[in-house]
Amino acid sequence: MLLVLVSVFIHAACSNIEEQATKPIGESHLSADDVYVGFVIDTLKEERWYSDKEIFEEEVKQLGARVKTLAANGNDDVQIKQAELLLEEGVDVLVVVPHNAEISAKIVEMAHFAGVKVISYDRLIRNANVDLYISFDNEQVGKLQVEEILNHVSKGNFAYVGGAESDNNAHLFRQGAMSILQPYIDRGDIRIVLDEFTEGWNPSIAQENMEKVLSNLNDIDAVIAANDGTAGGVITALTKAGLQGVPVSGQDAELSAVKRIVDGTQTMTVYKSIQSLAKHAAKIAVQIAKNEEIETNQTINNGKIDVPSILLEPIPVTNNNIKETIIKDGYLTEADIYN
User: Fold this and answer.
1) Tens of pLDDT along 186-216?
2) H/E element, 244
3) What is residue 235's DSSP assignment?
4) Greatest Cα-to-Cα distance within the chain, rounded to the nearest angstrom
5) Shared domain check, 45 and 131
6) CA–CA gap between residue 25 and residue 6 (Å, rounded)
7) Which of 49, 230, 246, 269 has its CA 20 to 30 A from that of 159?
8) Domain encompassing residue 34
């Protein structure tokens, strides 16, 4: 019975999408009051994504449009069904944080069939005719992580703890990191003793991978962790092994990570202004729904096309510039961090 009901729901959703597919993409001319924005987000399990959701929704509403956000909690099938639902409801533009960069191409296909444009938010959907991509310079993120770690140690055993292999950004972070590390590796100054992706960006898996290495080699000089979640898992493993204080990078400027930086167990994080990203994306979503022209600053190839892209600059954060960066920007307060 359940399978029958699911089948009927999907069939109904697809039928409604087919009914909508009568207008070519971009032909409507709407006022802001008429615009309905759909935001399909991978997960709300990580601290930063709550911020994206809240800021994005608030900005869309400030612009006079309607918005609905659906989170898939890391499930590809759920994310595709959520996109179907929003298309069935008649959204004018779809903003997507993909769980899987390849599988999410199906969402673009469905949206275009319904005459709806797609913005790839923060993570690039691969091998699809994505209309616009907005994110940060993600190779630069990896470079910033390594450069700060090298300020503390430039020889020895290094570990690279990556993000989810299904996330295109994880590959870009690694590319940026390795572009800086490679000369040190080539001349024998640095030995990479761990180089793995972390399934689902799960801190527990990052911890397990680190513990496996430490069980055979209790001599780690630095860890490049792709984000603050994986950094937290790594630091737990290092602390258990009596290696707290080993330089560890991160990303996202999560409150827990910034507190670790103050405590000296994490070396740095990379701040990507969620205010800037979410507000910019919201404005662009409404503009695209109204069929207005969008200025982009470059293109990024996603395996199929060169996607018009807007890339914002990431900022390295250490214990020396917390006040000048994330506090000044209003992302966190002194009370949040130091109390």
Assistant:
1) 999 999 999 999 999 999 999 999 999 999 9
2) none
3) H
4) 64
5) yes
6) 29
7) 49
8) 20-135+274-312
